[in-house]
Amino acid sequence: MNVRNHIHLTGNLGADPKTVILKTGKTATEFSLATNEYYRNAQGERQTRTEWHRVKAYGKLAEVFDKHLKCGSPISIVGSMRYRKWVDKFEQTRIAAEVIAEEFTFLGGSRRNRTEEMIENAHQEMMVAEPEDKKTSSRRKKSGGRPKKPTADIGEVIEAVEALEA
User: Is pTM, for the whole model, over 0.90?
Assistant: First the structure.
């Protein structure tokens, strides 16, 4: 049996992500995620139950979340559950459940708009050098490059394969 700490949540951000740089230099992001469950009560009326989850991410994933997520953003998170235990100022033992994000999928909005935005941001962030002329092109011209016509027809190839198999 494969036993694994695995959770998959799909919902909307309750607030903008909070991002900090840890003492180790690693980026950490934390946000709340609302998930909805729909059911019918005894009278047959549709009801909604909203659960709030605390999500944390570290490293590159935290940087992506900080850059692209905002309050209300729909997202699907895959990760693991962690429980943090501490003693508060009133000497009460507290336990908090947190989801440590490992994978994600942005939901909502068109993929095309998101892709165009990412390309635009990438063009603003990087400079592109002009490519140098390749020296291989002159060698191809001298040697003739690839043949224009096939060197063998399909019948010859099939006969050669059959001969090898025999």
Answer: no
